[in-house]
């Protein structure tokens, strides 16, 4: 299955506690908690481009599976990391956050980010 497509946020769990833990200011957390962000994924072999639009903020990351890439975090910091693929799952460790993005079926992506004991889960549906 291909990850390619445009996905809209359908639901999320532990948004506020996770964003606090990574250091996002309360003002931005309150602004962002009700925004239905849109993720566009372009997959070409092992090359990926992920564009996430949250209100007026646009975050773009490009990477190749298994190779080090500079990725932008949710706080806007840049960090080097290697994205791995295992079937329908993409995994990466970035600044202490373990991220797993799973293509559950052709229409649903579930992204789980873990920082210590806090697990932030986002479910996105194909638009």
Overall outline:
globular
Low-confidence stretches: none
> How many strand elements?
11
Largest β sheet strand count, sense and barrel closure: 9 strands, antiparallel
On the 0-100 scale, what is the average pLDDT? 93
Number of helices in the DSSP assignment = 2
Provide an overview of this structure:
Helices cover 11% and strands 61% of the residues. By secondary structure, it is mainly beta. The strands form two sheets. It has a nine-stranded antiparallel sheet. Strands 5-6 form a two-stranded antiparallel sheet. The chain is globular and about 40 Å long. The model has no long low-confidence stretch (mean pLDDT 93).
Give the key terms:
about 60% strand; 11 strands; about 130 residues; mainly beta
Give the secondary structure arrangement, pairings included.
Layout lengths: L4 E9 L1 H7 L4 H7 L5 E7 L2 E8 L2 E8 L3 E5 L5 E5 L1 E3 L2 E6 L2 E9 L2 E8 L2 E9 L1
Short description:
The chain is mostly beta strands and 127 residues long. It contains 2 helices and 11 strands. The radius of gyration is 14 Å and the shape is globular.
